Amino acid sequence: MEQLIFAGEVFLNGLMTGVMYALVALGFVLIFKASGVFNYAQGVLALFAALTLVGIQKGQVPFADLINAVFGSRLEQFGWTVPAALAIVLAALVMVLLAFLIETLILQHLVGQAPIILFMATIGLAYFLEGLGDVMWGANIKALDVGLPQGISDGIEQVTAGWFGYGYFIDRLDIWATIIAAALVCALVLFSQYTRQGRAMRAVADDHQAALSVGISLRFIWVMVWSIAGFVALVAGIMWGTKSGVQFSLSLIALKALPVLMLGGFTSIPGAIVGGLIIGVGEKLFEFFIGPMVGGATENWFAYVLALLFLVFRPQGLFGERIIERV
Amino acid sequence: MLYREAGDFKTSYREDGQTFPIRLDRWGYYAVLAVAFGIVPFLINDYWASAVLVPFLIYAVAAMGLNILTGYAGQVSLGTGGFMAVGAYAVYKLMTAFPEVNIVLHILLAGGITAIVGMVFGLPSLRIKGFYLAVATLAAQFFLVWLFNKVPWFYNYSASGQITAPERTLLGYAITGPASSAAVKYLVCLCFAVVLAWVARNLTRGTLGRKWMAIRDMDIAAEIIGVNPLTAKLSAFAVSSFFVGIAGALLFAVYLGAAEVGEAFGINKSFLVLFMIIIGGLGSVFGSFAGAAFMVLLPVLLKNLLVGGFGWPTNLAAHIELMIVGGLIILFLIVEPHGLARLWRLAKEKLRLWPFPH
């Protein structure tokens, strides 16, 4: 019984982690659907967004290290701080600009290449952005605080203590992250279902050429999709950055999102969410029950093996489009 | 002017099908081999061996392995780092368990063990294709690294969790351990690279290679014309993993000497080898060597330029280096998505017509 109560807590925590995974996976799905690009750089985008946000908020001079190294100056801070809300807006603008640059400088020149080439290009992009983020804002670990509530949630602890005689430890940040992620998903679904641009986006996802022939601008849609993905990355970056500081390991959440994608299917938004929840809960429960027997730290690979086993039975994932092959 | 096939008369099918049909190419190839075996070992010093030549040869073997799987058989793999770790740990266990057996045999056996592991992780390729498979091979990467980290038997219960290569000799020369000299290390790696390149070239132009290419181009069509996807895909995984395992064994035993699995064989290694074959050229043995040379030389050059030339702090230089590597990869993909091998081929075609282009 004790075990079950603990497992309940692990389950809830897993659910919330799952939402975070789903958030990153969403960025992947959006880009893959609209442009067929498997965007490995999504995790680094989140890191870059979070770094930019912190940098703007703290009033850091961008490229300070580089400027100092070249000119021998001692620049570091502008000496002001920017309010969180404004900083988020500015960071979002930077992400839009980045999306535009990615489209003009990279994707445009790679139209019609094999998917593996595009995938490799995004790995190159990931390296580039990782370096750029560090050069721009410095590589030290930064604390990110945009005013999200943190710490244990007293309400839940008291309620669960009343029920089971054991208070669940749930971080308020996780609860807020879940709410924000859910809101973001709803907004995205509404956007893609009911607005002109959203419809155009789905049309492009369906068939590039048909979309072009009815007068949809591919370039605009791609910039838009990458901007949205950048924005999703920003949100993910804020959540993860608040939780564990803005540092290199933030970009590794992309690797966590990949099995989510496999499980849910590369082309399905609901798939990304359900997949994220399954993986989040699955890996936490596995670590809780089986982990101690095999030496722990199973979270690194459990998601992948689960997704792998699942794919053997259903190669297109849970909600992916059925793969039809013709000779 | 000199570079012509005219006048080079082939009198048998064997001659017609040889790897270097043009005489100058053939001579160039023998000349490179002669320099590599006869001259370089006498000139080599520690810096050149450890910074450039030895890693180049080892990564060339790994790149050939991945090229067989990805370039010839069309199965994208991101698990190279994990398979290299299998080779490294296999050779470590063999070296410490049977110290009297020849080290070369150990390295080959390590390749064989990696081939078996590779086949097991290749099984899903029969059901999963494309990006799903690429991501699925990450399962191998993470699982294997975790396994070598968490099961103490693999690192002989050493306190640091590291593996350290004991000294082993071949013909009286130490080739592993701290006493080994630069020239010996270089020669050992060179022998493996040359022999394996010969194997790769001849496998890929024979029946097996044609089966792989048929599977790559369209697996359903290949199945219909009688290529068994089970044997073709699994053999590709096996041969590829054999190469990658040997590269991992050499990297650990000869080059690094001591290794910690997460650091030496992490996911970055998988990407590094993938970059090599993309930049070098998919489906080309020459491309594997060219890509390995490029990716090994680039960081050395950049480091010399930024830290040595401009005097920038090392951490800043490291970040700039990341940016440049990333940027160059993108540039390369835009300018020549088929890699250095294609550029080489184009250059040769031009040269054949030069100086009379009509």
In short:
Chain A is mainly α and 327 residues long. Chain A contains 14 helices and no strands. Helix content of chain B is 72%, strand content 2%.
Largest sheet of chain A: none
Oligomer: heterodimer
Question: Largest interface, with Cβ-Cβ < 8 Å?
Answer: A-B, 54 and 49 residues
* Total count of helical runs of at least 4 residues of chain B: 15
Gyration radius of chain A (Cα, Å) is 21 Å
Report the principal-axis shape of chain A: globular
Question: Helix and strand string of chain A, N-terminal first?
Answer: HHHHHHHHHHHHHH
Strand order of the largest sheet of chain B: 1-4
Describe this entry's structure for a reader.
The complex is a heterodimer of chains A (327) and B (358). Chain A has 327 residues and is mostly helical. Chain A contains 14 helices and no strands. Chain B is mainly α and 358 residues long. Chain B has a domain at 22-264. Chain B is built from 15 helices and four strands. In chain B, the strands form two sheets. In chain B, strands 1-4 form a two-stranded antiparallel ribbon. In chain B, strands 2-3 form a two-stranded antiparallel sheet. In chain B, a hairpin with a 2-residue loop joins strand 2 and strand 3 (173-174). The mean pLDDT of chain B is 86. The interface between A and B is large, with 54 and 49 residues.
